Please model this.
Amino acid sequence: MKTKAILLSEHGEPATVARCCEVELSPPGPGEVRVRVLFAPINPADINVLEGKYPVRPELPGIPGVEGVGVVEESGEGFAAGTRVLLPHRFGTWREAGNVCAAELVRVPDDVPLAQAAMVRINPATALCMLREFVRLEPNEWVLQNAANSAVGRCVIQMCRHYGWRSANVVRRAELVDELLAEGADAVFVDKPGELPVRLALNAVGGDSAVRMAGRLAEGGTIVTYGAMARQPLKVPNGLLIFNDIVWRGFWVTRWYARASAEERAALFDELFDLLRKGIISTPVEATYPLTEIAQALTHAQQAKRAGKVLLRCSE
Model:
């Protein structure tokens, strides 16, 4: 059968190299079920993949998209038709439908909003893992982060408020201060972090921004880098290592999934789904586009000062 998909045959300008095509879809193989994809977000990593700048490059031609939500079309492999599921890494979610290894699917509870479920695997998971994996935070303890208005940053704010931690947030635009305070941030700074006792800092920018945050850490504090928005290398001051004993760590949620046990992954999703159903975490969506409007969607997703994610509505 034929199905629509976004096909990437070469790297370059995203809106140019990503094309909506019809591809052949064979019947599900052993251990597979057919899933109709409903929603898939456009993440910064997806843009980097299209440009050829992401460190891990998929084989070409290929179908982009690292996360999404869908529904099982036919019963099989322990899944009833109509079951809502999260799609696995490396599946390529920017498509109408596909055959998926049943063992890699995660069931989505019926009371979790589909659009939010489509975005739970990357950003909320990154936020929760970083808050839990590196420093044992005490009640009311401060967490410092840059890129606080990003999808991960907003999740960190929401999770800190829920779990009883306090978030100190660095942004580049003054108009974001009141917005993030209204969302539950405890403190918001423009460009330079304030003087606060901090043992954990989360860095999505790199360059001078990361150095400024590291300089605010308490002795033995940890700074975790999970992004490089400034596209500038980290410059680790010798004094912070020698006299402050600062710990520099990296985090990549794809590696976390690869190393985690099935029980750890299940516990993570159970917790994230619970946060979603209760409305404790939520990722704003600015616009939704069909696959046939992929060029417009990618152009929109690359715009600065967006108020939310751009989603692909892959099928009805």
